[in-house]
Amino acid sequence: MDLTLSPREEAFRDELRAWLEANNPGSEPDGDEAGFEYRRAWQRTLNEAGWAGLSWPREYGGRGATLIEQAIFNEETARAHAPQVANVLGLAMGGPTVIAHGTEEQRRRYLPPILSAEEIWCQGFSEPDSGSDLASVKTRAVREGDEWVVTGQKVWTTFAHHAKWCMLVARTDPDAPKHKGLTYFLMDMEQDGVQVRPLRQITGEAEFNELFIEGARIPSGNIVGGEGNGWAVAITTLMHERATLAFSLQVGVQIALGELLEKAREARGNNGHAASEDPVIRQRIAQLLIEAEALRLNAYRSLTATMRTGVPGPEGSLGKWHWSEINQSLTELAMEIEGPRAMLDSDRWTYRFLRARANSIEGGTTEILKNIVAERVLGLPRMR
Ligand SMILES: Cc1cc2nc3c(=O)[nH]c(=O)nc-3n(C[C@H](O)[C@H](O)[C@H](O)COP(=O)(O)OP(=O)(O)OC[C@H]3O[C@@H](n4cnc5c(N)ncnc54)[C@H](O)[C@@H]3O)c2cc1C
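The joint structure predicted for all components is written out below.
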């Protein structure tokens, strides 16, 4: 693992920095719709300048960039406080899955509108009785001529209310062993058989939804990776989710820690001293800085492994688990420093604290990630 940038990488970083300085539209407007349209416009701007889907092949509208360049992009956009993109799941998971398992026709059809944010994607994996144990999904797809008819329920479907396409895992062979009877479909959300109902989170936002699927139709041409091969395709999606997210999230932690330090210097305790002078708070901040550095180095280690093998490995699970612990501790400490003011739900740190509760559940719970790290990274005996 060599952390120094080559002259080519430095040139890439400088070009990006200059572009971000000239084009960053500033902070996001309030409100779900306004915020979403703002992120969609930002993604369009990025795409037109060739910054979306950086590591995707050029023939599908990407830039053919290396993973190091992708990492530089994540760091620089976070550092510049650039807005989020609208099609997070399409860019981070849907696109890479279609590139890995899709047909040439599917790649040409689906990839360009992911990049331009014309078509937003969501992920229909979890169900009311099937979250961690994805292989137990009950949503059924039954073949009718050249179509599949789908019935079932999905839950926690982030961005379903904006989405055109859903990465849907459904059971197509109820008699096969549970990992083998699954198929991965791209389901058009714009049809009568699909109903989207918002779920409100502790933050007050409705970022995710319930999906009720009643006789929805999917053409056979929308199967990714072949009938009965849904488990392997879904794993590709999850590996990309954890690897990509872990890398950009570690940058977010570095920035949040800087803000926490500022807050500790400004906030006064009962004795009139700055919180940053309190030895216990100093100790906790120091611990967080150490953890954040370990997270950053592990993200690079995982990136190096991905560059060697071409696919993200199980180490991404370690990054996601570690990040969620750091982010939760960091926001808890900010609330303590904030004191009673933290009760105001308009406070930025209160929002972050509440949102962080989901970190140890979304994208795989901490318990599940620990199992993956134990079995697949450390090689410990399997639980089952
Ligand atoms: C903010 C947010 C966004 C999300 N977005 C999406 C999305 O877009 N699409 C989607 O499909 N899903 C999404 N999810 C769902 C998420 O993936 C699931 O919540 C998660 O996988 C856990 O599943 P579950 O909620 O059914 O909990 P369960 O699987 O029922 O787990 C309950 C508890 O049991 C523990 N547990 C379960 N099995 C084991 C085991 N083998 N060993 C040890 N402990 C175990 C878990 O760790 C957990 O603490 C989202 C969730 C959140 C919070």
